[in-house]
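Anyone else keep sequences and structure tokens together like this?

Example one:
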Amino acid sequence: MEQQLILAVGECDAENEIICVPETVNELFELPFVGGVNRTILLIALAAIIVVALLYFGIVRQKSRLIPSKFGAFVESLVSFVRDEIAIGIIGPEHGLKYFPWLLSVFLFVLVGNLFEVTPFINFPITSRIAIPAFLALLTWVIFVVSGFKEQGFGYLKESLFPPGVPKPLYLLVTPIEFVSTFLVRPFSLAVRLFANLVAGHVMLSLLLVSGWVFISAQGGIAKIPIGFGWFALGIGIFVFEIIVAMLQAYIFTLLSAVYVQTSVHPEH
């Protein structure tokens, strides 16, 4: 039976290795022409610059125009969506505007970082590195815990760990569950949800497109070429799907962050 060979490195022992594995994957993240700076750090800085540029040219510079440009209208629609549907819609008009700048920053940064996956010559979502979703989730955790103590004092712990209306004997079971769910599971699930979705999409997209190229460029007859184009077509379909996933995951991360704050500042809900 003929064995298929997938080349993952420049040099490979084709006789003894079916799948060639590189000794290190650092080249995926490190930039040899920038000493001490890896690819992820550079893309984080680029994402931050893009977010600042969007807000500056889409909002600040548009104030001098009588009629906003199409770009300004687009950015303003994003800002209005986060403000009205997430900040005010979830947290409420009393506290929503207070947390709006943070929610807008998180939404735009995660959105840009996610869209790097489908950006030509980048093709790498920074949110597929667990440190970034973990940091954002930890920041969210700090904000909603501090907000809870600020609004309710130490009654925040009482409301969180001892929900009213529960029979007292059940607190032995409910209180540990509420503690784990509120203070441990929330940041963990928030980070893992974003990380897992972007990693899965990035890996699937890479495998489909690379496999398509391997089949099209492989030697051994033209029979493999249709298979390669089939993989490419499927990869293009996943490419469009990943654009939707990138936007959806940015929305979900921001929405859940707002929900967590809402439960801290409005214990009655």
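And example two:
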Amino acid sequence: MTLVQLRYVLAVAGFQSFSEAAASLCITQPALSNSIKDLEKELNISIFRRTSHGIELTSQGSEFLGYAQKVVMQADLLKDHYSGDRKSTVRFVVSSQHYSFAVSSFIRLVKIYGMDNYNFCLRETRTMDIIADVHSLAADIGIIYLSDFNRRYLTRIFREQDIVFTPLASFSPHVFLSRSNPLAAKNVITMADLAAYPFICFEQGNFGNEFLAEELAVDRAGNKVIRVSDRATLFNLLLGLNGYTIASGVIEKELNPEIASVPLDAVEKMEIGVIRHNSVEPGGIFNQYVNFLKEALI
């Protein structure tokens, strides 16, 4: 087992693609695949599996990734400490549900950090992937929401994965829809109002249970459902199909000028917060990003 092989594993896990990881590492895909196969054979484990959605970590792979991340991080710190120029590269990885405020806060963070060397990553992904990223230390911070409906389920997973949840703000649910939709002019929208429109939501892959949904659990009257994997597609479908989704109501108007946010007639609340691994003590860049998130959620 070599440090190079560990970096290969981290690259494949990050891109969820052997071809993209190989391109980023400037090696051929067969060379990358063979190197990881040799590693799996040496350790007698299976790190990745191929699915219809691409590459996924196995349960052994998730555990291995956590160790690999720590080893590579320590090796980089050691190299930075003893290198001649002493210019360290700042690394910070965010794994988040699909929130525009997470993006705007990330933009602010990058702009103010003012260092010559940095390697930042913002990943919008599925709920279980966020938890896996934080658990394996592939991400420094995760952004996720809790409600009365999913709190017990997710809190149990956090406890099992040694993850700490810190609340940032609580919101009443809102409906996101096109400004051209007739419902956009209403002061409050009911679920009955939405029955004729398609509900656009984020798919959760193999973990498609309702407790992991990004959208608040409400009793919907309609049966038109479209699942998507990214925020741009969701917003395009809100505009193109007069669809709707249910979210916190916090939206960056400058980034999404054609999307309206209207309160939903529901008693449920959404508590947005951040997660981190219990073994990781929040540092300056972590706290700075959290402060930007708080300001965006006011």
